[in-house]
From TrEMBL:
This is Magnesium protoporphyrin IX methyltransferase. It comes from the Bacteria. Gene3D superfamilies: Vaccinia Virus protein VP39. InterPro entries: Mg_prot_MeTrfase, Mg_prot_MeTrfase_C, SAM-dependent_MTases_sf. It comes from Dendronalium phyllosphericum CENA369. The lineage of its organism: Bacteria, Bacillati, Cyanobacteriota, Cyanophyceae, Nostocales. Pfam families: Mg-por_mtran_C. One of its GO terms (molecular function) is magnesium protoporphyrin IX methyltransferase activity.
Amino acid sequence: MNAADDKTIVREYFNSTGFDRWRRIYGDGEVNKVQLDIRNGHQQTVDTVIGWLKADNNLSELSICDAGCGVGSLSIPLAADGAKVYASDISEKMVSEGKDRALQTLGNSDNPTFAVQDLESLSGSYHTVICLDVLIHYPQEKADEMISHLCSLAQSRIILSFAPKTCALSILKKIGSFFPGPSKTTRAYLHREADVVKILESNGFCVQRQSMTKTRFYFSRILEATRQ
Ligand code: SAM
């Protein structure tokens, strides 16, 4: 399967069965135990990133690109805290849900700005570019290009999260929980931290903060890197 096929499958997944599944996981309604575990893990990742950004005490001065924003789990609280957020995702269903949630939480507001857009076609310049839990859809050779592109949009900082390859065995055992049923054809790619750091460094960025979220069914390594 080539990368273009991968991307089409991912888009279709997040506009159909994947949308229903992840909207529930990223919500507060009733879910099964595995989904609850993933919900809690993902929330920890979001909270870690918000904690880092708030610690710098300049959120209201920042422009933020949330690439692959899903239903706005990160974008909406960041906008509520005063950052100017540009939120985009390849899935129109996820974006539409994000808009609805922003309206419910923030009322009529043009912040975040939501767009249906894949990462590769993003342009512009932002203080901080954030991409959480999207790299799992990219094989390493595509991930290199994708990270380099995101770096080119970041004036000062990039924050990425990915499923680390060290947890490969445990994740592979549980991968059926990530992509159940017919959508198992959606591949999950793990990434070596050293590879991610290398590509960040080759784009002029240096890792400043790092964290690991690990629950039973959710693993996410988070790196913050700043431009040198
Ligand atoms: N970043 C969000 C969060 O942490 O709440 C969503 C994470 S979700 C696991 C992965 C998201 O990446 C999905 O909403 C999916 O549609 C999006 N995605 C996957 N490939 C993408 C691409 N090439 N361009 C933009 N978004 C993409």
